[in-house]
Amino acid sequence: MQNKLKELKQKFISNLKTLKVEEELEVLENNLLWKKWELNNILKWIKDLNVDEKKTVWVEANKLKNFIQEEISKKKVELEELKYNEMDEREAIDVTINFPSKELWHKHPISITTSLMEEIFISLGFKVEDGPHIEIEDYNFEKLNIPDDHPARDVWDTFWISDDINKNRKIWDKYLLRTHTSPVQVRTMLKWELPIKIIVPGRVFRYEQEDSRHTCNFYQLEGLVVWKWVTFGDLKWTLDTVMKKLLGEWVELRFRPSIFPFTEPSAEIDISCQICKQSDPNCRMCSGTGWVELLWAWMVHPKVLTDCWIDPEVYSWFAFGIWIDRIAAQKFWVNSSRMFYQSKLKLNEQF
Ligand code: PHE
Fold it and tell me: Can you give the pTM of this predicted structure?
């Protein structure tokens, strides 16, 4: 019996030596220790031995089992290291190497525009906030005064996260890809650190029919100010200043009344088209109207504030949303914002 154990040990050691990959080690481990544990058979045979012999074999067999287990875990670490070292070698990137041409890398026009806007807003005292792309229905809709049966929901064609994940979640807790950056207004207000003066640049998703002005994901920049004595004049001045700094002194802003469930009253804001300078009846960007819709804004609806435990009798506020892609198109004279998503180096190389 003792010999059998020795044999087993020898077999194990030589098998272990020849192993090269983790999968083989798993097979060996399975065979020896778990499924067809050869040691198990030995333990079956010892029933015919006398008590003393049984004891010794039992102790030896257990020692062997522990030895095997230890060796297997050591080998696992060794093989893993080997695997990662090989991977490192195979996938190594030399960050010090010189690129043959500088033109190989470029910041995307949307990133350039976002950074510029961040800089301008920061210089006006705004803080930059961030939020998740996968949002809950409550923050994306409900808390922004857009309940389930509200007609405005139709405007925000939504990508929902798969039924498997959503089916066990409460109605207001269902996951979706955020349709706008406005849920970060809610997230910030719920932190209840006043005054609030934030911008939220970020990616949003809509189930859209694509054309030169619409894409199913795009970038927005949200703004929210909550403090005492904030007026519509502040909002107008802020947007005017930012747009002029970004696009040039000659830019004109046009405010039109609109409807948003979470702002009351609400406005859509157009800027004078920088591509055709309001002079091309066939301009694809402004459809010949001379104006491009780029921003939405106005005072936050009191219900949104009370839902976030902020007293609308004490505080005043305004919010705005800016369509970064369209600003980038205006800034860089690109006549279709869809081009930003076509990964064309030829386009990026120009900026
Ligand atoms: N969230 C709105 C949208 O995506 C835009 C908006 C932001 C309107 C802030 C008003 C205030 O359409």
Answer: 0.68
